[in-house]
């Protein structure tokens, strides 16, 4: 069958331009998130970082470990969706696309719960440096997850209403690259902000 | 399907993906375990960064099949990634002492001490107050004095004889160990000092504004007691 060969458009590099563009974009996203994470780490030593409320009192490691696990599983689901796309197994592709988007929505639910809890505890983006850098960083990550969920859900719908557009496995592959990137950013955020970030800090309520 | 490998779109088989997923779960569990058991001390930062780089590599290499793709993709991605890491390290070198594992007690002073500007306005942002302090103070202060200076208290409160404690925003604390016991009836000196740090707005001395920041969240174990001990000893 000539299906695989017609997916390979002719380019001067011999590689898919769209895939190369995606990897270039992800390289630039490293800079975007890198700067936000660095800002958080740099400000960690400022007295004003915890002015008002300390991360040690707020960050909930058990809950966040669960949401980290959920996002990890969504990446696994995405891998299976891409594999199914390359097998031209539409049923499996739909199943795993839907699973990926659903797990992404669960992750966003965790994040909404966390933000809500923080605001109830009195931490907003303007409370202290921790609030500013935390909400900016995780907020932008959440926005990326949201975009990914929308993208993947649209792909899921398109497998029904416009099968031609999704029969090319490259489309699923590229959405997968974006989704996995969002996952690895969270791997870094979880380690740097949550685990390292609350290590060695006492919550304030001592006698 | 085995023909997947032929066109290079697929690097790994489904069982291989499952194995990678399992490793990722185990490593994440390990991270959380290490965090809670607290057995590695200061090594925690390095171990956590190592494990997270490992997870990062597994996802990029296998889930995103970068390991099996043409090198050009790797160059484009790695270019951005390395640039991002370099910039982050540069920021950390410029603005911190790399003690990201825990908050600092006393900032290292620059070689040339600069004269203190005397604050003339009441509202001094906390960060600039602590900068004023960290600029001129020798880093040899230890114990309660070190905490007093390290937490930025000295930017707003004066203590005669303590180098750098010249702030005018809050009350002078030279004799606080004596004065504290006389301020509120039924509140002894220690309680007064503790309460004034825990709830800065409770007891405001006439003529001063309620602008002291909340610091409780920033104390490491024992620091709060050490600071109160020190202030109580100023008689």
Features:
heterodimer; A: 207 residues; mainly alpha; 8 helices; elongated; disordered N terminus; B: 235 residues; Cytochrome Bc1 Complex, Chain D, domain 2; 2 domains
Question: TL;DR?
Answer:
The complex is a heterodimer of chains A (207) and B (235). Chain A has 207 residues and is mainly alpha-helical. In chain A, 77% of the residues lie in helices and 0% in strands.
Strand-helix topology:
The complex is a heterodimer of chains A (207) and B (235).
Chain A lengths: L2 H5 L9 H27 L11 H4 L2 H26 L3 H32 L7 H33 L1 H5 L1 H28 L11
Chain B lengths: L13 H24 L6 H20 L7 H25 L30 H11 L6 H8 L25 H8 L5 H10 L24 H10 L3
Helix pairs in contact in B: 1-2, 5-8, 6-7, 7-8
CATH superfamily of the largest domain in chain B: Cytochrome c-like domain
**Runs of chain A with pLDDT <50, length 5+?**
1-6
Number of domains of chain A: 1
Distance between the termini of chain B: 82 Å
Mean pLDDT of chain B: 77
Estimate the strand proportion of chain B.
Answer: under 5%
Radius of gyration of chain A: 20 Å
Structural class of chain A: mainly alpha
Instruction: Name the CATH class of chain A.
Output: Mainly Alpha
Tally of structural domains of chain B? 2
CATH class of the largest domain in chain B: Mainly Alpha
Order of helices and strands of chain B: HHHHHHHH
β-strand number of chain B = 0
Figure out the total of helices of chain B.
8
Judging by the overall fold, what is the CATH architecture of the largest domain in chain B? Orthogonal Bundle
| Beta-strand segment tally of chain A | 0
Characterize the biggest β-sheet of chain A.
Answer: none
Please, could you describe this protein's structure?
The complex is a heterodimer of chains A (207) and B (235). Helix content of chain A is 77%, strand content 0%. Chain A is an all-alpha fold and 207 residues long. By secondary structure, chain B is mainly α. Helix content of chain B is 49%, strand content 0%. Chain B contains eight helices and no strands. Chain B has helices spanning 14-37, 44-63, 71-95, 126-136, 143-150, 176-183, 189-198, 223-232. Chains A and B meet through helix 2, helix 3, helix 4 and helix 8 of A and helix 1, helix 2, helix 3 and helix 4 of B.
């Amino acid at each position: 069958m000539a299906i695989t060969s017609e997916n390979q458009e002719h380019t001067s590099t011999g590689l898919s331009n769209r895939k190369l563009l995606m990897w270039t974009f992800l390289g630039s996203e490293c800079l975007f998130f890198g700067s936000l994470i660095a800002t958080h780490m740099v400000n960690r030593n400022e007295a004003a970082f915890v002015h008002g409320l300390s991360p040690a009192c707020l960050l909930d490691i058990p809950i966040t470990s669960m949401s980290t696990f959920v996002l990890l599983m969504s990446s696994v689901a995405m891998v299976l969706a891409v594999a199914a796309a390359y097998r031209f197994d539409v049923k499996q592709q739909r199943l795993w696309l839907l699973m990926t988007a659903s797990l992404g929505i669960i992750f966003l639910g965790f994040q909404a719960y966390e933000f809500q809890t923080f605001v109830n505890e009195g931490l907003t983006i303007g409370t202290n440096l921790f609030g500013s850098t935390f909400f900016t960083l995780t907020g932008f990550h959440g926005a990326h997850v949201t975009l990914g969920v929308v993208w993947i859900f649209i792909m899921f719908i398109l497998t029904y209403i416009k099968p031609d557009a999704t029969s090319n496995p490259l489309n699923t592959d590229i959405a997968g690259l974006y989704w996995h990137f969002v996952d690895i950013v969270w791997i870094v955020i979880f380690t740097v902000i949550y685990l390292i970030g609350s290590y060695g800090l006492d919550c304030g309520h001592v006698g | 399907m085995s023909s997947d490998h032929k066109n290079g779109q697929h690097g790994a088989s489904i069982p291989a993906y499952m194995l990678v997923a399992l490793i990722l779960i185990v490593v994440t569990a390990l991270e959380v375990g290490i965090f809670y058991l607290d057995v590695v001390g200061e090594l925690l930062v390095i171990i956590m960064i190592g494990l997270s780089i490992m997870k990062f590599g597994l996802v990029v290499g296998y889930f995103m099949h970068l390991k099996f793709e043409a090198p050009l993709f790797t160059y484009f991605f790695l270019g951005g990634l390395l640039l991002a890491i370099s910039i982050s390290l540069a920021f950390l070198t410029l603005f911190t002492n790399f003690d990201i594992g825990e908050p600092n007690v006393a900032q290292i002073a620059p070689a040339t001490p600069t004269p203190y500007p005397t604050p003339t306005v009441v509202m001094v942002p906390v960060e600039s107050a602590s900068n004023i302090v960290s600029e001129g103070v020798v880093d040899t202060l230890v114990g309660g004095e070190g905490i007093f200076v390290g937490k930025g208290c000295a930017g707003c409160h004066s203590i005669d004889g303590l180098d750098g404690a010249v702030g005018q925003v809050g009350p002078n604390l030279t004799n606080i160990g004596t004065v504290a016991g006389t301020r509120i009836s039924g509140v002894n000196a220690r309680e007064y000092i503790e309460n004034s740090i825990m709830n800065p707005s409770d007891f405001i001395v006439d003529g001063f504004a309620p602008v002291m920041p909340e610091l409780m969240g920033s104390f490491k174990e024992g620091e709060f007691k050490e600071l109160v001990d020190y202030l109580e000893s100023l008689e």
